[in-house]
């Protein structure tokens, strides 16, 4: 029912200009670096696809990529079901709804470096609330600067703390849009709680959950500041996710060529996975 | 019912614990923090807050952040409105591809762009201005704003547009006086998300500024490394960064739930 109108391009033009300025020019700079070698002094030499080959074969890249997928996978399988469960158990109306929503949205509005710093002081073994509780009250040996497992538990918990509310907000918005009549009909049919969830609530939440999963995938795959401030990628390299590794190569070692090639491979992977998600989750709508 | 309401309560307590710890720490003296564990501040002090409110390098950080975040929100929402309208009402050459391309910009890791952004904005000559950060944040905020607004506009029946034209409204007058007020919940939600993602982003904001437009988050990182880790001061600065966000959520609290329900659902 949309009308064909090529003049609509004029409406899109300002967006196109601003985003292209920010996206295409830096992207071309990255492409430019990725095929050249520099020894400083702004002298560049053509390198072809050497950097791409080097990155794709490098053990270090494979390890960082593996950690990145593990991280994103873990936070998705925790945050999505947890967010849906919390949204389901929230009151549908009344004065408590606003209070819940405001308190739940709070972590998302804290600058990312503050989130990292906050969890850092929260987890310090002797003076942080979490670290002290685990070490001295429960007697668990917990120190994220020494133990890779503890570091992983901390960054996962931090991300769950930070972003589960996004899933809650979106799922909740889907739930409140379901008319009461649906529930009444389900009651008359004697539907169990599970079938109400499976056949009424879940389909109604599908669109918002698509947005939630896509946003969580993209943002967790690109995560940099929070784990960097929290663990600095350590102990060793155990929590060095892709972005952290990339910044280490680009700004730490100033290897612009390999860093640029890695950026492009990184971006391509994000793009591919997002596209797969997007097509899989919207394919029913297209038919 | 009683048991069910326990879930949100436990979740909220979990969310509040690290925030409580940050706030509690901001009222402690550095000696107390380093001396050992204490659940409540023993010697309650406002010294950290006093430092922040009297030292221009500190409080200007907040002002800078608020300036570029507001600027970004205004730019993103105002250019996204007509674009979202075009996507929701018309078919045009390359519309689907363009929409997906816009979304892909949310997928580019900021770490990838930090250095090229620095070079680009230096070349254009607006390095270290609020505008530079506001424009750079458009990269991920405009696509999001278009996406959210398009959802809301899709929920508005086309008859509204047609009736207005029959009544003799010109397009700009229809858009400003009828259409935008109809989707004001959507504008609220889009503005909220733009504010949020611009406020919390640090990597680009830090890369694109030096002195004049330095964001609060950068002031904090510098303090953490140079002044020998003054935890109390850092905690106080962190606590203050939570406040603008809390105010913004308070204002849009009713739009968020209802707003999304009207939109893409």
The level 1 CATH classification of chain A is Mainly Alpha
Helix and strand succession of chain B?
Answer: HHHHEHHHHHHHHH
CATH architecture of the largest domain in chain B: Orthogonal Bundle
By CATH, the superfamily of chain A comes out as: MetI-like
What is the rounded distance between the termini of chain B? Answer: 26 Å
- When the domains of chain B are counted, the total is 2
The greatest inter-chain interface is formed by: A-B, 93 and 100 residues
SSE order of chain A, one letter for each helix or strand: EHEEHHHHHHHHHHH
- Ranges of chain B where pLDDT stays below 50 over 5 or more residues in a row are none
Q: Class by helix and strand content of chain A? A: mainly alpha
Determine the fraction of residues in helical runs of chain A and give it as a percent range. over 70%
Computed Rg of chain B: 22 Å
Strand content range of chain B:
under 5%
Largest sheet of chain A: 2 strands, antiparallel
Radius of gyration of chain A: 23 Å
CATH level-4 homologous superfamily of the largest domain in chain B: MetI-like
Strand content of chain A: under 5%
> Could you say which overall geometry of chain B the principal axes of the C-alpha atoms support?
globular
Provide a compact summary of the structure.
Chain A has a single domain, classed as MetI-like (MetI-like fold).
Describe the structure.
- The complex is a heterodimer of chains A (287) and B (265).
- Chain A is an all-alpha fold and 287 residues long.
- Chain A has a single domain (58-286), classed as MetI-like (MetI-like fold), CATH 1.10.3720.10.
- Helix content of chain A is 74%, strand content 3%.
- Chain A is built from 12 helices and 3 strands, in the order E-H-E-E-H-H-H-H-H-H-H-H-H-H-H.
- Chain A has a two-stranded antiparallel sheet with strand order 2-3.
- In chain A, strand 2 (36-38) and strand 3 form a beta hairpin.
- In chain A, helix 1 runs antiparallel to helix 12 (256-286) and helix 9 (193-221) packs antiparallel against helix 12.
- By secondary structure, chain B is mainly α.
- Chain B folds into 2 domains: 1-45, no CATH class; 55-262, Orthogonal Bundle (MetI-like fold).
- Chain B is 77% helix and 1% strand.
- Chain B is built from 13 helices and 1 strand, in the order ααααβααααααααα.
- In chain B, helix 3 (47-54) packs across helix 4 and helix 8 (159-166) runs antiparallel to helix 9 (171-182).
- The longest helix of chain B is centred in the first third of the chain and has 34 residues, at 56-89.
- The two termini of chain B are 26 Å apart.
- In chain B, 47% of the residues are buried.
- The model of chain B has no long low-confidence stretch (mean pLDDT 83).
- At the A-B interface, strand 1, helix 1, helix 4, helix 5 and helix 6 of A face helix 1, helix 4, strand 1, helix 5 and helix 6 of B.
- Strand 1 of chain A pairs parallel with strand 1 (90-91) of chain B.
């Amino acid at each position: 029912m949309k009308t064909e109108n090529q003049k609509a391009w004029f409406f899109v033009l300002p967006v196109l200009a601003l985003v292209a300025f920010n996206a295409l020019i830096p992207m071309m700079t990255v492409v430019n670096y990725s095929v050249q070698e520099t020894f400083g002094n702004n002298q560049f030499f053509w390198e072809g696809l050497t950097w791409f080959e080097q990155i794709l074969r490098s053990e270090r890249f494979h390890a960082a990529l593996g950690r990145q997928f593990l991280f994103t996978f873990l936070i998705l399988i925790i945050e999505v079901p947890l967010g849906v469960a919390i949204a389901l158990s929230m009151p549908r109306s009344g004065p408590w709804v606003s209070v819940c929503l405001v308190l739940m949205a709070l972590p998302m509005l804290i600058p990312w470096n503050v989130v990292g710093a906050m969890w850092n002081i929260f987890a310090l073994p002797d003076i942080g609330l979490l670290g002290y509780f685990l070490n001295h009250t429960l007697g668990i040996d917990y120190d994220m600067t020494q133990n890779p497992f503890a570091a992983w538990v901390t960054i996962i918990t931090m991300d769950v703390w930070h972003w589960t509310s996004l899933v809650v907000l979106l799922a909740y918005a889907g739930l409140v849009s379901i008319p009461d009549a649906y529930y009444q009909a389900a009651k008359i049919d004697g539907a169990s709680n599970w079938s109400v969830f499976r056949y009424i609530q879940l389909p109604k939440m599908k669109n918002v959950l698509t947005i939630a999963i896509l946003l969580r995938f993209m943002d967790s795959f690109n995560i940099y500041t929070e784990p960097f401030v929290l663990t600095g990628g350590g102990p060793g390299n155990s929590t060095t996710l892709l972005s952290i590794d990339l910044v280490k190569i680009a700004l730490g070692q100033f290897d612009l060529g390999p860093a640029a090639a890695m950026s492009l491979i990184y971006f391509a992977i994000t793009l591919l996975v997002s596209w797969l998600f997007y097509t899989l989750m919207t394919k029913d709508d297209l038919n | 019912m009683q048991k069910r309401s326990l879930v949100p309560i436990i979740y909220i307590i979990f969310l509040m614990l690290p925030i409580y710890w940050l706030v509690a720490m901001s009222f402690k003296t550095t000696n107390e923090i380093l001396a050992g564990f204490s659940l409540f501040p023993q010697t309650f002090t406002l010294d950290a807050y006093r430092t922040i409110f009297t030292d221009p390098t500190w409080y200007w950080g907040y002002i800078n952040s608020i300036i570029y975040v507001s600027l970004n929100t205004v730019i993103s929402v105002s250019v996204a409105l007509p674009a979202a309208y075009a996507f929701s009402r018309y078919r045009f050459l390359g519309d689907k591809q363009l929409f997906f391309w816009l979304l892909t910009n949310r997928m580019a890791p900021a770490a990838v762009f930090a250095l090229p952004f620095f070079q680009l904005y230096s070349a254009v000559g607006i390095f270290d201005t609020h505008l530079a950060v506001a424009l750079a944040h458009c990269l991920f905020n405009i696509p999001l704003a278009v996406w959210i607004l398009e959802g809301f506009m899709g929920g508005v029946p086309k008859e509204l547009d047609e009736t207005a034209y029959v009544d003799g409204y010109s397009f700009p007058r229809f858009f400003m006086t009828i259409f935008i007020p109809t989707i004001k919940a959507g504008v609220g939600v889009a503005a909220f998300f733009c504010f949020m993602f611009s406020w919390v982003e640090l990597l680009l904001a830090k890369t694109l500024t030096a002195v004049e437009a330095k964001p609060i988050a950068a002031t904090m990182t510098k303090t953490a490394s140079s002044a020998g880790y003054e935890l109390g001061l850092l905690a106080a600065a962190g606590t203050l960064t939570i406040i603008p966000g809390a105010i913004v959520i308070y204002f849009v609290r009713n739009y968020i739930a209802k707003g999304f329900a009207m939109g893409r659902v």
